[in-house]
Amino acid sequence: MKPPIRAILDRLAARYPEAACGLRFADPFQLLVATLLSAQCTDARVNQVTARLFARAAHPRALLELPPQELEELLRPCGLHRTKAAHLREACRLLVEEHGGQVPETRRELERLPGVGHKTAGVVLANAFHQPVLPVDTHIFRVSHRLGLSSAPDPERTQEDLEALVPPEERVVAHHRFIALGRELCTARRPRCSACPLADLCPSAGLLSAEPGGTPGGGGIPTGNNGIPAGENEKS
Ligand code: SF4
Questions:
Q1: What's the pTM value of the predicted model, to 2 decimals?
Q2: For the chain, which ranges sit under pLDDT 50?
């Protein structure tokens, strides 16, 4: 039996009332860029890089005018900078040539952009366009499986399970709150169940933690790539 989603959402709201996107952006294009750069990089590092990048090029046409080597150097602190620079340039080319320099508002069009997978498209749809989606990153995949909210083998179907449970108007903020829980308490290797506000609702409470009575490690729940496409893995 699934734990009560209403109680879970309410307790997460009480614990993380201010949970929000950690990436700084002023418009959909900036969020798209920041999300592309966030693969295997922390939000804080991405924000440092995008502050410098957007000072040089704040829209697709300007970014295409940057010398390729300068773009790579700007992205270097994010890691995978050559791949990210190539994806970014090609994405900007498509945005200019096919979308008038604007970021499209549909998943189908977003996922045609280089480097944009299911999760990245969902993050843009949720945070830039306020669409009722609950994109699943590695934190949400882990937390939702431990809570028994999904047993789906991949993030896409986990998202479907969660969206069937979470009311549309709460999905975006629930996305941020599940991530906050995954980062603070329900961590991959050592979940701190004794401090978790969901412990009495969670079928995994105490089973996976390094606390007395628990077993360190993921307890069979995937904690690495988690089936998330390359470039969309855990970052913090
Ligand atoms: S009780 Fe433990 S396993 Fe369950 S959600 Fe909380 S931290 Fe994660």
A1: 0.87
A2: 213, 215-236
